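Moderator note: this is an archived Q&A kept for reference. The question asked for a predicted structure of one protein chain; the sequence and the answer are reproduced below.
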Amino acid sequence: MIACVLAGGTGTRLYPATRADRPKQFLALGGERSLLARTVDRLAFADETLVSTGLAYEPGVRDRVDAETVVEPAPCDTGPAAAYVTHLLNERYDDPTVLVCPSDHVVRDDDAFRETATRAARVAERTGRLVTLGVVPTRPDPGYGYLEPGAERDGWAPLDRFHEKPSRETAADYLADGFRWNAGIFAWRASAFLSAARASPLAPLLDALDDSDVVGGFEAVPSVSVDKAVMENAADRDEAALVPAEFGWDDLGTWDAVGRQASDETANAAFADLTAVDGSGNVAWADDEIHVSLVGVSDLAVVAVDDRVLVVPRARANEVRTLVERLRDDGRY
């Protein structure tokens, strides 16, 4: 089993802690080591671990982990990245099992993760299906995609359908129906994934890779997630499986998610030197030399990094991505 860590994204919704030269996976976010380093450590049970990243981030990856680095020539989301690494590994080995993991998530029980990931790999080997881990939801969260499982078999279930991020009301219905969170963690035999990918928008990339044209391959495909490019169609064709996961998980995609990682006696999540008076539910994140004071406010994220300050209601933290798009358009990102 070969583990592939996808580390090419930036994590724009955590602006201003993340910037073009400082992606989310390089941050510690409540731990002592970077999210990337903790992810690679967690995968020590694999026979080999690779990290897939962009050219701009490769030096930072090498500084943080001792693992082979595969460089994506252009940022094209997780679909092309997963196809590139799986194609590379299939040429190097005899149809290996590939475990694909994001580099910027939090897992609270490494032993349970290892057991679940190993089971997913075995299901992929035994059935030839493309396997995804489905995390047991702890709340009706509209910020996650959901997975609809079929009837459970021996530790796994057919994956009936992917569901996009829902409304909070619909998310509550999903929980009642036994749906799972989509953690973006996959296992597959290389041959099974490549066969499915050749019937997807990723086909031009694989054709180019057959001719050793990596740059041309990335230029020939759209920016698309592996979910949309391959996994959703695999579910429709009854070629996908879900393995239940109960190891405690969060993708730390927004400041609201970061706030769930730590809190003080007034339920303020403090990743800064914070003094709060008559306020709760706030997230404070700042550089070491900055003190944050809050008076009479609740449920805000207050972030001060470098020359930037962000203040946003936690309930609207997902909209930071829209702010970043505007800053980019204005040349101020």
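Archived answer notes: The chain has a mean pLDDT of 94.
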